[in-house]
Structure formats: C-alpha cells, structure tokens
Write a structure and sequence with these properties.
Layout (H helix, E strand, L loop, with lengths): L15 H10 L3 H4 L26 H4 L5 E3 L3 H4 L2 H9 L2 E5 L1 H5 L8 H7 L4 E8 L20 E7 H24 L36 E9 L7 H6 L30 E5 L4 E5 L6 E9 L2 E6 L4 H10 L13 H6 L5 E5 L4 E4 L4 E6 L3 E8 L4 H16 L8 H11 E3 L2 H27 L4 E3 L9 E2 L6 E2 L2 E7 L2 E5 L1 H7 L7 E4 L3 H10 L13 E3 L1
Parallel strand pairs: 1-2, 15-20
Antiparallel strand pairs: 2-11, 3-4, 3-5, 5-6, 6-13, 7-12, 8-11, 8-13, 9-10, 9-12, 14-21, 16-17, 18-19, 18-20
Helix pairs in contact: 12-14, 13-14, 14-16
Keywords: Chromatin regulator, Dioxygenase, Iron, Metal-binding, Methyltransferase, Nucleus, Oxidoreductase, Phosphoprotein, Transferase, Zinc
GO cellular component, one term: MLL3/4 complex
Protein name: Lysine-specific demethylase 6A
Length: 538
C-alpha cells in the first residue's frame, strides 16, 4: 500500500475549540448514516497489496545472505546498535544470545514443562512430513502451495510422550539402516534431518501407485504461557532480555494495549518433531516478532522482505488460496520466477530470530526442538503505519485484526510523549478520524431517538469487536441480546438488522469531552538530542 494514502488533511496543532469546529463542519452528515470507518483519508483509494519493486534481481540477489550477528557478551546484547541492526533488516538472526545473557533454556525444555504443568493444553496440527523446500500433493503428485493441516488438542504430558517416542523411533531406524549398510548418518546429526538438497521436481515415493501413504507428524503449537502463576520461573527468565525484545516494555506498543492478546503480548511455546511446519504468513497487523529456539534441534527459516508481500499474495491467489485465511507453503521455484528474493537460514538452539514489521515467513523444524515466541511493537512511524495499513486491509478482507488499533492509539496518546514528527502525525490522524466518527454516530443515534447510555470502561477490559463482521468497535457500542448473550455490534451491522436501531441498546464508553481533551493534550515534543529515544513515558 502506498504510504501517500496518509495525506494529512488537517492541521494537527488544533486546539479543543478548533477540533469542535471541525466536528461541527460535519454536523448533519451523521444524520444520513453514511459514516466511513476508515482511518485513512476519505480521498484515498481503498488499501490494496502493493506492486513489488520493479528491479530485476539476479541469481545472487534472489538468495540474499541473512543478516546475522553473533553476541559475545551481555554488553553487546544491550547495546543500542543491536536494536538498530534489527530495525534495518526484514529479518535478522542473533546468534549466541542465550549464552551471552546466561538464559536458562532448560526452563522451557519438554522435561521441565511436564514437571511444571503436565495437563496444560496443547493445540496439535497433524501434517505431512516432507522436505522443507518442497510441498507435494499426495493425490496429484504435484508441487502445490496448499499446506495440509488438521487441528486437534492434547496435553503437554501426552505430547511429550509423542515427541520422545518419535525420537526413539528415529534412532531405531538409524540403527537398522546402519546394520544393513545403508546409513546416511554423514549427512545428519542426532537431532536433525538431512542437510539441504537441491530442489527436486520428482515427487516423493508416496505419490507412486502402490506405495505407502505419506508419513504424518504431529506439531504441538500455541501453548499459552501467559499465566504468571503457572509459568513464573519461565517468564522471569525472559526479563534478562534487552528491553526491545522483552514481552513487556515501555517502548513496546503492545504493552500499551491494556489487556492480554494471547501470543502477541504474551509468550507462546511450540513443541516440535522434525518436519513440523508453521505455514507462510505475516504477523498479526504486521507487528514485529521474537522467536527463540530452545533446542536441542534446529529450525529452518524462509523469509521474504515486506516490499514483496503483494507479489506473494498474487501467487497465493493464482493457486486458489486466500492469503489471509488460507494455509500455504510457497513453492520456491514460483517465488524465484516471480523475481521474489528469499532469505533462508538455520536457527540453532539459543538463537533469537527478529522478524521485522511486514516480513513474510515460514518455518520448518529440522530436528526435535521447542520454540518460544511473542510479538513486539517498536515505537516507530514505520511500525505504526504498517499496522494501520494492515488494519484497513483486514476490514476489506473480512479478517479480524486482533490488535485493536483504535483502542491502542488512544492509549498511546495518553501514555507516551512522542518526538518523532511522522509517528506523531500518524497517531494524531487516527485520533482525529475516530473523534469525527464518534461524533457522527452519536448524531445519527440521537436523530433516530435512541437513548445513549454512558457505560464507562473497566480496568484491563478487553477491546470490543462486532459479533457479526468482527471489526473493532470503539467507544459507541450497539448491544442486542442473542441466544441469552449480549452481543456487541458496529453501527453498520446494527443498521442491517434494524435500520432505525430498534431493539438495540446504545452504550458510550467515553464522554466526547474526555476524548477531545486527550486529543488536545497529545502534542509533539522536541527531540532532546540526535541520539535520544524518540519517545518518553508520561
């Protein structure tokens, strides 16, 4: 999406009186009920995937070296240069992090997890086991993008048994091969699959008539480690990380949401056997992510710079897969033919992978290992802008934005002082547009004779989403009872059910005067020095 859609059509140095006059300018518009919920300029076209860079890449450029840095000590881990390095690149691997910080990775080992909480829930994905750079359809014998995965649930203890038995079974197969003189141990280690091979156009044997069915595996994913009582030692250990990589930090936008977003501002764990796949994706609302390999085996990563995500989206569509809703594993030859560069690297135990905003990536376990991951939102204009762009595109794609960008933006305006002009203007624009939307909605509701009841907002209360279309509903909630539950609706969905809003209760969480005051108090602060942080806590 072109950054120029953020045409700032209003002067952000307005006083409260000027804001009220701006809202007054739209008075009467709300009565029609034609109220845009867009956070970008009304004059801009709707968001769409961007065209990729036009530069034709040679073979070397299609296989760029992965940005990586090796940490020798704790001082290097906490240097400002490390964060700057990560923010410069689409993806980066920080090697030796665990050793440099003396992180006890054993706290996240399968053995420790079983001892701590054996009955804790694990989501399981049953997948076909195949090489990391290939994705075959067992039926047609052709390379495909669709990544087959079936969902179920188990416990940590049960998955631990499966993980251990899978390892023992593999060792037995190795011994049997050695006994028959067919060992390929020179190309393996005890925790990992064979080393990288050349791309093959020959389908695996499971596609040949009369052969066995493809071998299936179970991937233990999305293990929730958010409970501070259950996982206290594990979460405390992660406080050793530098601030920019921590789960909770003043400089992390996601720490200002004010409530839990599982897997984003909390830790999730992944338990893997060789071949376990995390299919292609960008992070929710394009936030950055942190991933640490606990080991003992390696993981193989593939990544595409965010400038090419539109081209990857186009290839998904060509393969009849929905980019946001579908499960896909890119065929590497297709990417290279489309002039899309791909980073490819191994993440070893103790390595931290930084995924920058908007980077497309997919991951496969090479050996038996566990990983921990979460998201972070550096307080930069680029991070905020990419989050808003995806927030708007998600609406058009009927895909839920699990980061409530309206709620987050208002919290940021209350909690931080910003000295980066671009970040300031982006946030201020979001506040201005939501003020206008709230004013017009209230005008429409009152015109229909519906009483607006002040409801307020509880501490740490979760953000609200429309029960029909799943867009975020900020400040003005339309409530209707459905199946003995009170369901929140956005105004558009409420009007579809009842044009005059009959049967709906309208609740207001903030007084307009309060929002206007917050808006007016959010000002651009001067930068203290060229090297100073671009924000300060209130």
């Amino acid at each position: 999406m072109d950054v120029r859609i953020y045409t700032l059509v209003c002067n952000f140095e307005k006083t409260v009186k000027e804001i009220k006059s701006k809202i007054a300018y739209f008075r009467g518009e709300g009565i029609k009920g034609e109220i845009s919920n867009s956070l970008i300029s009304d004059r801009a076209p709707p968001p769409s995937p961007p065209d990729p860079p036009a530069v034709k890449l040679n073979h070397q450029q299609l296989l760029p070296p992965t940005p990586s840095v090796y940490l020798d000590n704790k001082k290097h881990a906490f240097s400002p240069q490390l964060q700057e390095f990560c923010l410069k690149h689409p993806i980066a691997v920080i090697r030796g992090l665990a050793a440099a910080l003396k992180l006890d990775l054993g706290l996240f080992s399968t053995k420790t997890l079983v001892e701590a909480n054996p009955d804790h829930s694990v989501e399981v994905r049953t997948q076909i086991q195949q090489p990391s750079d290939e994705n075959w359809d067992p039926q047609s014998g052709k390379k495909v993008w669709a990544c087959i995965s079936h969902r179920s649930h188990t416990t940590i203890a049960r998955y631990a048994q499966y993980q251990a038995s899978s390892f023992k079974e593999s060792l037995k197969e190795e011994r049997d091969k050695s006994a028959s003189g067919l060992s390929d141990s020179d190309s393996k280690d005890s925790m990992n699959f064979p080393k990288r091979r050349k791309l093959s156009n020959v389908a695996p044997s499971f596609n040949t008539k009369g052969c066995n069915q493809p071998k299936m595996l179970k991937f233990g994913t999305n293990v929730d480690l958010s409970d501070e009582k259950k996982w206290k030692p594990q979460l405390q250990e992660l406080m050793k990380l530098p601030a920019f990589a921590r789960v909770v930090s003043a400089g992390n936008m996601l720490s200002h949401v004010g409530h839990v977003i599982l897997g984003m501002n909390t830790v999730q764990l992944y338990m893997k056997v060789p071949g376990s796949r995390t299919p292609g994706h960008q992070e929710n609302n394009n936030f950055c992510s942190i991933n640490i390999n606990i080991g003992p085996g390696d993981c193989e990563w593939f990544a595409v710079p965010d400038a090419y995500w539109g081209a990857v989206c186009t290839l998904c569509e060509k393969n009849q897969i929905n980019y946001l809703h579908g499960s896909w594993w890119p065929v590497l030859e297709d990417l290279y033919k489309a002039n899309i560069p791909v980073y490819r690297f191994l993440q070893r135990p103790g390595d931290l992978v930084w995924v920058n905003a908007g980077c497309v990536h997919w991951v496969q376990a090479v050996g038996w290992c566990n990983n921990i991951a979460w998201n972070v939102g550096p307080l930069t204009a680029r991070q905020y802008q990419l989050a808003i762009e995806r927030y708007e595109w998600n609406k058009l794609q009927s895909f839920k934005s699990i980061v409530p960008m309206l709620h987050l933006s208002w919290n940021l305006s209350r909690n931080i002082k910003v000295s980066d002009p671009k970040l300031f203007h982006l946030i201020k624009n979001c506040l201005m547009r939501t003020l206008r939307q709230c004013s017009m909605i209230l005008e429409f509701v009152k015109h229909k004779g519906v009483e607006v009841k002040f409801h307020g907002r509880g501490k740490n209360e979760a953000s609200h989403y429309c029960g029909q279309c799943e867009i975020e509903v900020f400040n003005i909630l339309f409530i209707r009872e459905q199946e003995k539950r009170h369901v929140v609706h956005c105004m558009e969905c409420a009007r579809k059910q009842s044009p005059n809003l009959e049967g709906f209760v309208c609740l207001e969480e903030y007084k307009m005067e309060e929002l206007t005051e917050v808006y007016d108090n959010f000002n651009l602060y001067p930068t203290i020095s060229a090297t100073a942080e671009q924000y300060r806590l209130m």
